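Quick one, tokens below:
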């Protein structure tokens, strides 16, 4: 697997954008141009993963920070899901941040919804990979999110608020943000 860091707004990444826009519902996406500005201004770790033939296998976006890193976006093309690709990417990501505490938010596996079985599979996937439920969650636009954590420590609602406030400060400083509010987006 080949990793490529996406670090600039001008990088030609059309297929990554297509994956982003197809893997996440619109209400869970930051507008693409704004996300690319945040990659630069927040020093996000945006990594794309390819096979040896150049086929896009997925991407991750991590907000590296103290006392924990936020695994913000993680996507694998639909035709590659369930084939070990996501497992390999997550294993690499965990190894990269092995000396840190890492969190992620995801849709609640308990909220009634059309994709409940998918949410439960995703939840089980993260549990198998050493993440645990923190008991912290929020609702945004009718979707319940939970926070999962890998590593030592605890995660509180205040920690969630702190991350959101950091994101809002970066968002509001952007000259062309498509809107003035930012809420967490899931994995």
């Amino acid at each position: 697997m080949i990793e490529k860091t996406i670090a600039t707004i001008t990088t030609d990444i059309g297929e990554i954008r297509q994956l982003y826009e197809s893997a996440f519902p619109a209400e869970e996406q930051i507008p693409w141009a704004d996300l690319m500005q945040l990659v630069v201004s927040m020093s996000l770790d945006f990594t794309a993963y390819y096979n040896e033939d150049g086929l896009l296998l997925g991407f991750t976006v991590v907000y590296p920070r103290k006392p924990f890193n936020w695994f913000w976006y993680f996507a694998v093309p639909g035709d590659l899901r369930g084939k070990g690709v996501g497992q390999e990417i997550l294993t690499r990501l965990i190894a990269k941040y092995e000396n840190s505490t890492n969190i992620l938010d995801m849709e609640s596996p308990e909220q009634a919804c059309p994709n409940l079985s998918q949410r439960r599979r995703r939840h089980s996937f993260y549990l198998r990979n050493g993440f645990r439920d923190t008991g912290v969650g929020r609702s945004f636009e009718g979707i319940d999110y939970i926070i999962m954590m890998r590593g030592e420590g605890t995660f509180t609602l205040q920690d969630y608020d702190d991350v959101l406030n950091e994101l809002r400060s970066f968002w509001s400083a952007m000259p062309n943000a498509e809107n003035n509010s930012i809420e967490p987006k899931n994995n």
